[in-house]
Amino acid sequence: MKQPIPVTIVTGFLGSGKTTLLRSLIEKRQSRRLALLINEFGEISIDGALVRGEAGADDQVRVHDFPYGLIAYGDDELFLPTMQAIAARRANVDHVLIETSGLALPTAIMEMLQSPGLAEDFVLDATLAVVDTPLLLSDQFEHGGGSDAAATVFGQQLEFADVVVLNKIDELDDDALLLAETRVRERAPNVRFLELAHKAQLDIRLALGLRLHQPTRTEHTHSYTPLATMPGPNAGVLAEQGRLNGHAHSGLAAHSHGLATHKHFHEQDPGWLSFVLRSDAPQSADKVRHALQEAVRLEPVLRSKGFIRTSETDQAVLVQGVRSRVMISVDAVRPAARRSELVIIGYHASRTRVAAVLSELTGTSWR
Ligand SMILES: Nc1nc2c(ncn2[C@@H]2O[C@H](COP(=O)(O)OP(=O)(O)OP(=O)(O)O)[C@@H](O)[C@H]2O)c(=O)[nH]1
Q1: pLDDT digits (tens, 9 = 90+) for 140-187
Q2: Cβ distance 344 to 274 under 8 Å?
Q3: Phi-psi map region of 289: left, alpha, beta (phi>0 left; psi -120 to 50 alpha)
Q4: Distance from CA of residue 152 to its chain's centroid?
Q5: Measured from the CB, is residue 88 less than 6 Å from ligand 1?
Q6: Ligand 1 touching residue 51 (CB < 6 A)
Q7: If you take atom 14 of ligand 1, which residue's CA is the nearest one?
Q8: Consecutive H or E run containing 365
Q9: Closest ligand 1 atom, CA of 327?
Q10: Of 37, 42, 112, 339, which one is least surrounded by beta carbons within 10 A?
Q11: Nearest CA to ligand 1 atom 13
Q12: How far is 95 from 209, CA to CA, in rounded Å?
C-alpha cells in the first residue's frame, strides 16, 4: 500500500509569523523535499515571493500560491487539483506544508484531506497555530478588547490546533510566558504541545513528522433510522441539534462530520477587507512607516505588507506592518520594485481614507 504524504497546516492570525516559520523550516529542511501551499488574504502575493526567495533555485522545494480567497473553502477551485498534482509526483515529495491566510480556519483543509479525492494520498501530520504572544497578552483577542471579529477568528484557529507556537517572545519574561500559556490553555484545552519560538524558529523535529493524526477513513456504512423521540410541532431548539438528523455510523472509529458541519458556519466574515495601494513616486521609508502608523490609528487596519521603491537604495524594500508595529527593511536579494505596492488588511477599513493618509503624509500620490 502506498504511504500517504504527511501534511502540516500552519495557521495563525494576521501577522503572527507563519511565513517566517515556513522560511525557517525551508532553511532547515536538509534533504526533505517539500511542497508548500501559501494562501494570502490579498490580491498580490507577498508571502509567496518571500518563501520563494528562501527556497532559491532548489527544485526540492515547490511553492504554490493561493493569492485569492481562502484555501479549501467553498469557492476555492485550486486546492483539489493542486493536491492531486502533488500526489501524482509523490516520489519527489516528502512533506506538504500549507500556510493558511491569517483569516482562515484550518478546518476546511482538514476536511478536504479526508475527502475521497485526497484521503488515500495524504494524512494530516499536525496543525500548528502561530501566536503573536505580545498581542495575546495585550487583551486584543479578548471579546470586547480590540475587534470582536479578530477575537473570534483567533479563538477558532487555536481551537483546532494540535501545536501552539508562542512567537514574538523576544522581549517577554517568564511571568509573561506563563500567563500566555495559561491563556492558550483556557481557550484551547485540546492543544497537545505548546512551543516557544524566537523569530518563529522551531526545531524542525518539533514541526514536521509529528504524526498526530492517524488516517480516519475506514470502510463504513451509513444508515438513517427513525429517531426514538421525534420533536412535535412546538418543539424548541435543542442544545444539540446534531442528535436530530437520524444519521448513524458503523465501523468508523473517528470521523470528520463534525468538522464538515462546523466549516459551513464559518465561511468568511465579509467585514474583513483587503486592498492594494500603489504609488509610482519614489518613497521615503521613514515617511511610509509614519503614514502607516497614522493609518492604523485612524482606521481599523490590522496588517500592511508589500514592497516600496525608495530613492535611498536600488534594492527592494520590504514593508511589514502588524498593527502599529511597522518594520521596513532592505531585501538584499531582490532588485527594487518598479512601483510601490502595499497590501492593507482590516476590518471595515476605508480604502479612500487610508490612501488619503498615505498620500498626505508621504507627500506622494497613493491610489
Ligand atoms: N519581533 C519579532 N518579530 C517577528 C517574529 N516573528 C515574526 N516577526 C515579524 O512579524 C511580521 C509578520 O511576520 P509574517 O511571518 O509575515 O507573519 P504571517 O503570519 O505570515 O502574516 P500574514 O500571512 O499576513 O498573516 C514580520 O515583520 C516578521 O519579521 C518574532 O519572533 N519577533
Answers
A1: 888 877 788 899 999 999 999 999 999 999 999 999 999 999 999 999
A2: yes
A3: alpha
A4: 14
A5: no
A6: no
A7: 17
A8: none
A9: 27
A10: 339
A11: 17
A12: 8
Number of CB atoms found within 10 A of residue 335's CB? 9
3-state secondary structure of 79: helix
- Dist. CA 281 → ligand 1 center (Å): 27
Residue 55: Cβ within 10 Å count: 19
* Nearest by Cα to 36 from 78, 96, 86: 96
Are 268 and 152 in contact, with CB atoms under 8 Å apart?
no
Residue 322 sits at φ, ψ, to 5 deg, of -120, 105
Whether 108 contacts 73, CB under 8 Å? yes
ipTM of the complex: 0.99
User: For 254-286, what is each residue's pLDDT tens digit?
Assistant: 333 344 434 433 456 778 889 999 999 999 999
pTM summary value: 0.85
The DSSP code for 240 is -
At 109-133, the pLDDT tens digits run 999 999 999 999 999 999 999 999 9
Grid cell at residue 366: 497613493
Is ligand 1 within 6 A of the CB of residue 168?
yes
